[in-house]
Amino acid sequence: MDDRFRRLRAVTIGTRAGQGRGGRAVERPPPLAPVIRPAVDLSDAGLFRAAVSDASPLPDTGRVLPPPPRVRPLPLQRWADDRAALADSLSDTVAWEFDNQTGEQLAFKRDGVSPLVFRKLRRGHWILQGEIDLHGMTREEARVHLGTFLSECTRRGVRCIRVIHGKGLRSRNREPVLKSRVAHWLAQRDEVLAFCEATPRDGGGGAMFVLLKARERG
Question: What per-residue confidence (pLDDT) applies to 17?
């Protein structure tokens, strides 16, 4: 039993050492060459090229695309200057006096405006060529809208307008909030020659007739 175990062990050791049965050498196969995997471009351009690899490019027609149109710059500074000039032309701090010759609180005429012209304005003789309704606006809103409206009237050559400021029936003290403000603003504008309270059929104490300068020809 011991001899058989020794012979079996000898065969096993010989096989591990590269020998076959009977002590003959065993030829081993050559080692396998390592597998080289091709490199893959994982960039966006590489993946795109791989996705469109079977596509054919369009023929070159020699067409040149026109440049995109240039966007005109916005005159932001000029707009800011115009807003500042408008605010300065309608301030609440400039003091002035009403015309004492008319006997009305809200009546005004500049030097050089004849009494006849002013009487015609009070009677509603002048044809109204435009109007603006400031009723229900805040003081700041009314000032901006009035200034813009007067500038537009001057540009168009409008001579007589009506400004509606309201009678203040819904205000806290039931007094016209914008009435005195509008009078102050109008008196500060160079294009305003005169203004007065409108006739009863045209609004009475809730509106004003305003006479503007004629547009200069040139």
Answer: 46
What are the pLDDT digits (tens) for 50-103?
888 888 877 877 777 788 888 888 777 776 656 655 555 555 544 444 444 444
**In the beta sheet, which residues pair with residue 192?**
212
Has residue 166 been placed in a domain? Answer: yes
Dist CA 72 CA 69 (whole Å) = 9
pLDDT in tens, 22-52: 555 556 767 766 666 656 677 888 888 888 8
Q: What domain range includes position 103?
A: 90-212
Q: Is residue 92 packed enough to be buried (19+ CB in 10 Å), middle (13-18) or exposed (0-12)?
A: exposed
Q: Which residue has the tokens 């995109």?
A: 68
CA distance 116 to 125: 11
With CA atoms as reference, report the closest residue to 160 among 203, 124, 184, 190.
Answer: 124
List the CATH number of the domain containing 124: 3.30.1370.110
CA distance 192 to 182: 12
